[in-house]
Model the fold of this input.
Amino acid sequence: MTAETAVLSDLIGTIYDTALDRSLWSEVLQKSAAFVGGSAASLYWKDAVRRTGKPFLYWIARHDTTVPSYFDQCVRVDPLTARQFMFDVGEVYSVEDCMPYAEFMESRLYKEWIKPNGYVEQLAATVDKSTTSFSLFAIFRGEEQGFVDAEARRRMRLIIPHVRRAVLIGNVLDFGMAEATAFKDTLNGLAAGVFLVDEGARVLFANASGQALLDEGKILCRKNGVLTAADPRIRKMLPGVIASAGDGDAAVGTNGIAVPLSPHPEQAPHPERPWLAHILPLTSGARRHAGIEYSAVAAVFVHQASLETPSSMETLSKLYKLTPSELRVLAAVSDVGGVSAVAEVVGIAEATVKTHLQHLFAKTGTNRQTDLVKLVAAHASPLRQIP
Done:
């Protein structure tokens, strides 16, 4: 085993352990920063329309308390937010992927928070996304690490699938495991269906919600003891992901972050919401003790996904073929209004704002800033904040 493989294996194991012990996230952030290359790391949430946000977790190697908090004073003037929201879930991106770095250096965010903290930029990936908001996992690069390079991107891509799975499973569980002996009782109290399975996907334990799904037989079924989807078109997918979980944490990789479980068309011709399964390996770390009573290699969490519609910004961008710069200006206009205020928030000259506004007017068929605000409002959807 190479040194990198050993470090990565340990990191991935700790990532999955957070599903049962959320206090381990600080350790995950610190290890992730060391593995990817950074002086700080954070898991946080931002609203692309309201320009608000909050941190879930963060780790900082060094911190100057005289610098204002990003979420207290700087989140509203972050020129990256609108473009970050456009990236797909799981996609890794840096500042340069969002906007020209020279333009970024002229922004208030850079002058008031990035530079005073000794940071250069961040390498991030969207973990989850709703209609107007998104959560992201970010590694902040200091002057000692320099700009994001190909090696940092490669390493970030190695851990992001596991971070996404741990976050999603943690949201389904929504509890902190205090004792492994309470595992069965805790699972029985969950609304999501939970199954403990062996390497052959045979069901060793099903909580009350899971047993109800099996009894109904529309989403899941048990064939010769093996947990499978009721829909024959995807029947082999779930056992395949479970089998990879039996080979260890890293073997799961990008497979089965969210396995679709479509109901059989004859039983549910018009399903309201899709059903998803998340697989958590139980072969190492603290998780091994949670399933050792059943000799289980994985826990399968099954729940119904929430209905989501494209965000207003995403919809408008595609509908009117807006550039990232135009999208940033549109978001700022809807939030703060006024050329001078938009220029300050986005971090560009007033003349540049006026140019972008003329392009927005031409593309959207509007004539005034108030019309642009109404356009954004007309396409807005209710916010589902990621817990």
In short: Residues 150-173 form the longest helix (24 residues). The chain has three domains: 3-173, 180-304, 312-378. The mean pLDDT is 81. The two ends are 37 Å apart (CA to CA).
